[in-house]
Amino acid sequence: MATRKQPVEDRDRVKRLDDKIVIEFGGSPGCTAIMIFSPILMYYFWACIEYYQGALQYPGSVEGETLWDVLPYLSRMWGHVYEGAYPTLKAFQIYTYFMIFQIIIAIVLPGPIIEGLPIPSRNFTRLKYLCNGISAWYTTVIVSFLLHWYDYFNLVEIIDNLGPIMTWSIFWGNLITVVTYFGAIITGNTHRMSGMFLYDLFMGAWLNPRIGPLDLKMWAEIRIPWVLLFYVSLSAALKQYQDYGYITAASGFMVLAHLLYVNACHKGEECIPTTWDIFYEKWGYMLIFWNMSGVPFLYCHSSHYLTKFAPGQHEESLPWTVFMYTLLLVGYYIWDTANSQKNRFRMQLQDTYIDRKTFPQLPWGTLKNPSYIKTKQGSLLLTGGWWGIARKIHYTADLMMAFSWGGITGFGSCIPYFYVLFFTIVLVHRVSRDMERCSEKYGTDWDRYCKEVPYIFIPYVF
């Protein structure tokens, strides 16, 4: 597919939309609440699993305490955090050395150079991205295996120090947020600022922060959160093997689920420069904290929860387990191929597509001569492949996987289902935000597109 140059008249409109300030999440009050309560929620869920096998805690939830014993309840929960999540030196070394290692290999390892989408605030220039994710991922796996095998670092220490490591992740997430915000102001790299300090701190001030060749936003997108999440699940499974001599189907499921996700992010890293987060979102608390801390320590509840039960003490039926494995693998196939179709279509339009052989390359991941709608502005709206079946089918697949992450643990606790509940809220917000922006950008062409692809999530249902 030939390279297309964006018309000049379209550039003016795109730039106006890119500069437009939209107040979300309830403005400063809402964003402040999120920044305050996110770490509190993380500690709360961690303590419920660590000390109470996933039972939700509240005043009166333990013997000798009543519903009115709020202060004793708060004292009890704070005691758990102080005892089990204190920021130890060992936890600092685990998290910080891991982060430094990921920075180094992101800079030095080989990989293809991919151009991103034209950035309106930079006069539509296209930044270059070193996409060495797959070599970095394989290097991380090999190094961690050698460290574990030769007893330099037992991977079980990750789950054994989960609380303290989480505390350091919170520290780094907040510190990087503040440093990036004021760095943008000092260097004159602010963009789309509302003038409300706390709101801008949350949404970000810097669109494309870089240290030399390292794009920090893209690095933090996958090199920290999904790799850490995988190692938490792997550590939990290894602990089970260490204690009982084998790994249950549920623990193996979580390792597989997070392996599929982290590997997909790295094998298809060349598609990430064209995504919304890289192209539009600024690097603020919303992305920084979530990638550095939220994803690995809020999405790991299922793996953490399973470590609190001996094999046989908490196992679901074989049919249910098979159903969860099937749901995971089907959801993964749709998610992987749908994202590949969309992002490779974008790359073909920009003449940046490269045919990679990273494993696994699934059937129907790349569309040849797909159908599309051409808008008056010259943009192409994909209607072929999965994208002719539903407008957000990749979100449907993501939610299928998210439910399976909780479902494999059974129904003894609602905490493993936090991810799918939270993710549903996030995706509904993101979809409504995307629909509004696309309607404003494409006008009647968007109405035509919605008629051609009428379903959002599930064909013939919704």
Task: Describe what you observe in this structure.
- There is one protein chain.
- The strands form 3 sheets. This protein has a two-stranded antiparallel sheet with strand order 1-2. A two-stranded antiparallel sheet has the order 3-4. Strands 5-6 form a two-stranded antiparallel ribbon.
- With 462 residues, the chain is mainly alpha-helical.
- It is built from 18 helices and 6 strands.
Structural class: mainly alpha
Indicate the low-confidence ranges by residue numbers: 1-9
Give the radius of gyration: 23 Å
Largest sheet strand order: 1-2
Overall 3D form: globular
User: What's the tally of helices?
Assistant: 18
Q: How many E strands?
A: 6
Strand content: under 5%
- Which sequence of SSEs, written as H and E, runs from N to C? HHHHEEHHHHEEHHHHHHHEEHHH
Secondary structure: helix percent: 55-70%
Q: Major sheet: size, sense and barrel closure?
A: 2 strands, antiparallel
Mean pLDDT: 94
Separation of termini? Answer: 32 Å
Helices, strands, pairings?
Layout: H1 8-19, H2 27-52, H3 70-84, H4 89-108, E1 113-115, E2 128-130, H5 133-149, H6 156-160, H7 162-187, H8 197-203, E3 210-211, E4 214-215, H9 216-222, H10 225-244, H11 249-267, H12 276-279, H13 285-298, H14 301-306, H15 318-349, E5 372-374, E6 380-382, H16 393-407, H17 418-442, H18 444-452
Antiparallel strand pairs: 1-2, 3-4, 5-6
Helix pairs in contact: 2-3, 2-8, 2-13, 4-7, 5-11, 7-13, 9-13, 10-11, 10-13, 11-15, 15-16, 16-17, 17-18
